[in-house]
Every structure is written in C-alpha cells, then in structure tokens.
C-alpha cells in the first residue's frame, strides 16, 4: 500500500497542486481564497493524502494481477490525468462543479459563487472516480487464476471498520460543523443494519462481514452529505446507499467480475448514490450553521 500511494503523491507534489489549486510557488504564505490561514505547503500535503488514498482504492481492486512497475506508472498518470482534473472541478475556486449555479453569470471569473455540487468531504474526486476506475482496471486485467474468496481475518476487518467509523469523525474538531460527525455515525449504523437484513433475506445467515460492509456503505453514502443533511435524512441515506451497494455487489458476483475489494460496488456506486441523495436531502438551515453558502436540496424546491 505505501508503494502505490507514493507514486501519485509524488505526481501531486510535482504538478498536481499547481493544476488543482494553481499553487505556485509553494511556501509558508497562505493561499487566500481556498485556505486563508494555512500555509500553501501544508495545504498541498493535506490534499496529497487524498490523491494517495484515491490511488490506493484503484489498486485495491486488482491484487495478485498487476506488477509493481506497470502499476506505478499507471497510477502516476491516472492521478495526473483523471484525479487532478476532477479535484479541480470540485474544489478549486473556479471549478465548474463548485460553481455550477452561477456558470452563466457575466462576472463568474471575478466573483465565483461557490454554490454548486454538494460534496462535504471529497466523494466525487476520491471515491466515485477511484471506484469506477478500479472497476475499469479489473475489466481490463480480467480474473485471477485462483480467487481467494474466504475472509481470512474477521477480527482485523472489524478493527479496521471501527477505525474508519469512529476514527474519521474524530477529526471533526478541525472543521466548523461538529454535527457532521453525528450524521456520519447515524448513517453508518443504518447502512450496517440494512446490509445485514438483506443479506439474511437472501442467505439466511447473519455475519459480521455483512455488518462491516454495510457500515462502509453507509459511511460512503454520508460522506458528501454530512455537512448538509439532518439526522433523519442520514438514516434514509445510509439505508438506501447500503441497499444499492448490496445489490451492486450481488450483481458483480453474478456477472463474474473479480473486483476483490468491491471498489466499484462500494466506492463507485455508493459514492454516486450518496452524491445524488445529498442533492435531494440537503437543507439550507444546516449549512447556515457555519456560514457555508447553499440553496438547499430537492426537498426545499431546488
């Protein structure tokens, strides 16, 4: 894992930061529009981690099927030609997704409105892009000769799920909306219970693996929405995204797609559904709590 994150991280240092945020030169001064109180070099390192995570998700789909050197070359250029552009569209001051509501305004370049796609924590650039890219990588490389389908260490899986579930909301102290941690936990719980329920309907078995998969699906669904939706909506989002990911995972097996980490089914499908449902359930009164500009979602007539 450190190897496949090193290649895209290097690329992000060389040109990714400049391409996404026009950070040149890097130094101790702050970047006034995007991070006015953070030195540009620190801001670059922060976003470099996201580039590495996205690359790791792509690689998670194809274990035992790719050699190190070709894989590093692929993920280096994938980061530069895919991830960096989507990150710019979503996060940069003049990204068209970030300013989708005011693209037609004559003074858009001078006064971007920052009202566009609702993505609180990078669902589009990271999980949707990496999930579907991993699925495409799988389709190109094909199946493994020997598929190791059994879960060899459920204890580690439970521990890792717990770290993802409660470790990520622990960083909420660094953002303006602590309530995001609450809806994140609610959605994860709803996703876990939904996956377990539907898996029991089809297999007549209850398993910790099913619960962990559902928790991940719930976390993936709430990531773009956590700063925009109420707790009741988090339950709906977690349940619907978990059901969508579960259905996608079953279809993957039926169609014989050897995506070992379910990157397409979980990160791709889950991230996409989460972004769509964010646009449905976002509420303006929630974003007003920390001064984030928005117009609410479909339930408020937008």
TrEMBL record:
Name the InterPro entries on file. Ammonium/urea_transptr, Ammonium_transpt, NH4_transpt_AmtB-like_dom
The places in or outside the cell where this protein is found are: Membrane
Q: Any one cellular component term from GO for this entry?
A: plasma membrane
How is this protein positioned relative to the membrane? Multi-pass membrane protein
Name of the molecule in the record: Ammonium transporter AmtB-like domain-containing protein
Q: What is the originating organism of this protein?
A: Ramazzottius varieornatus
Name the principal localization, coarsely classed.
membrane
Show where the Ammonium transporter AmtB-like domain sits.
22-301
The record's gene field reads RvY_18370-1
UniProt keyword list: Ammonia transport, Membrane, Transmembrane, Transmembrane helix, Transport
Instruction: Note the Gene3D superfamilies from the entry.
Output: Ammonium transporter AmtB like domains
Q: Which residues cross the membrane?
A: 12-32, 38-59, 71-91, 124-142, 154-172, 178-198, 205-222, 228-246
The record's similarity note reads: Belongs to the ammonia transporter channel (TC 1.A.11.2) family.
Q: A Gene Ontology MF term for this entry? A: ammonium channel activity
